[in-house]
Design a protein that fits this description.
Order of helices and strands: HEEEEEEEEEE
Distance between the termini: 43 Å
Structural class: mainly beta
């Protein structure tokens, strides 16, 4: 049983690396991309101390949030992309019914404000148009 579990875990890990291989791609030179990410999040309750869902558990009041995030990417060369991302962005609207309770501490939740802006680049080191050319393998680093 342990061998089967280990083999299944190894297959999942390998499948994940092939699934995300496209993330090593960069934009072609002179090509840009702009993203707008609208998010609406809500919760109408929570779990009580016994682990049961309770719509009116302490600190589990309803909340609703509308968030707007933005991202801009640009292909500097065929193997370097620059990016500026503002995610999760800013909460443009929120509504909450209760206090946040974490252990013995309770405080009013603050859903207002803005998230940090991320600036970085993706540099493809191995790939079709990269400094180390290879059509079978891609490798990129993304400092930010």
């Amino acid at each position: 049983m342990k061998k089967i579990t280990l083999m299944a875990l190894a297959c999942l890990l390998l499948a994940g690396s092939f699934t995300f291989a496209d993330d090593a791609n960069v934009l072609p030179a002179g090509v840009g991309r702009f993203y707008v990410a609208n998010t609406y999040a809500f919760a109408n309750g929570g779990y009580d101390v016994d682990g049961d869902f309770d719509e009116y558990a302490d600190g589990a009041g309803a909340f609703k949030v509308y968030n707007l995030g933005l991202a801009l990417e640009y292909g500097v060369t065929d193997w370097i992309s620059a990016a500026v991302q503002w995610a999760p962005g800013v909460n443009l609207w929120n509504d909450r019914d209760a206090l946040l309770v974490v252990g013995p501490v309770s405080a009013e939740t603050n859903l207002d404000g803005m998230a940090d802006i991320f600036a970085g680049a993706k540099i493809q080191i191995v790939g079709e148009n990269a400094p180390v050319q290879n059509t079978m393998v891609r490798f990129a680093v993304a400092p930010g």
